[in-house]
Predict the structure.
Amino acid sequence: MAAWKDRWPLARRWAFLKRPLLALPQKPHSMEVDFCPLPDIFSDEGGFWLGLVVDPGLDLILAIAILDEPPVVQDLAEILSEAMGSLLPSGRFRPEVVVLRDNPEWEQLFPFLVQIGVEVVVTEDLSRWDEKADELIEWLKDQWSTPCPIVLPTDEEPTVAKTLLKLRLLATSFLFFGK
């Protein structure tokens, strides 16, 4: 996955995202966006990262990403555009404000967000995001420890790719079906 990130710098990727995002109606909402490492309970092969976009006003998770490597600014742009363009649960829209935890790498995205009329706020307090992330992580831990109906390819030995696939499927089911 890192290969496309190397070939598609943020400015080039944003050129494809900008027009569709500008076409979306802007609503007086905010979105809290961040990534955090997942606990090691999910795999011995290496760390996984959880990315969420949360609408604190609606108290909803708008997008989820699970990565097998530390997130970069392109990952932030992808999850944000996914949240804005998603029909579910609140329809497609651009927020007025995007709230991010302080990370120097995210600063590369600020000018692009301003181009589509989105204000950026940097803070250490993403209380709704933290609550939703804790809720999702606890749910994933519970689901991981119980027999899972998700059938993976026939190889018996788990790999990073299989673990990542299973985590993504579980996280998506949480997004659509909740607890």
Observations:
- Residues 73 and 108 are 7 Å apart (CA to CA).
- The longest helix spans residues 127-145.
